[in-house]
Write a structure and sequence with these properties.
The chain contains 5 helices and 4 strands, in the order H-E-E-H-H-H-H-E-E. By secondary structure, the protein is an alpha+beta fold.
Length: about 90
């Protein structure tokens, strides 16, 4: 994605960026390394549909509203890697 700092791909942390309609437009190398997903797995999809498919629609709406209001979100939640392993924090 043009214009993003190189640091996004240099970090070992998993980073993804969505557009205003909540579709993934970017994942960094750390995301691929830690969770096994590649661009084709996520681009154009909602992150919740892929890494936390068990989230209820109400929970997703609440999460989106929090983010839109500029509030940081930290959730202790198991997320699903591409191979199906559940681990980590969202």
């Amino acid at each position: 994605m043009c214009g993003l700092p190189d640091a996004y791909d240099k970090t070992g942390n998993a980073i993804l960026i969505t557009d205003a309609s909540w579709k993934v437009v970017y994942i960094n190398e750390g995301f691929s390394t830690l969770l096994g997903y590649e661009n084709d797995d996520l681009l154009g999809h909602t992150p919740t549909s892929v890494i936390v498919p068990h989230f209820s629609e109400d929970r997703i709406i609440e999460l989106r509203e929090t983010l839109v209001n500029g509030v940081e979100v930290k959730i202790d939640e198991l997320i699903k890697s591409k191979c199906g392993k559940k681990s980590g924090v969202l």
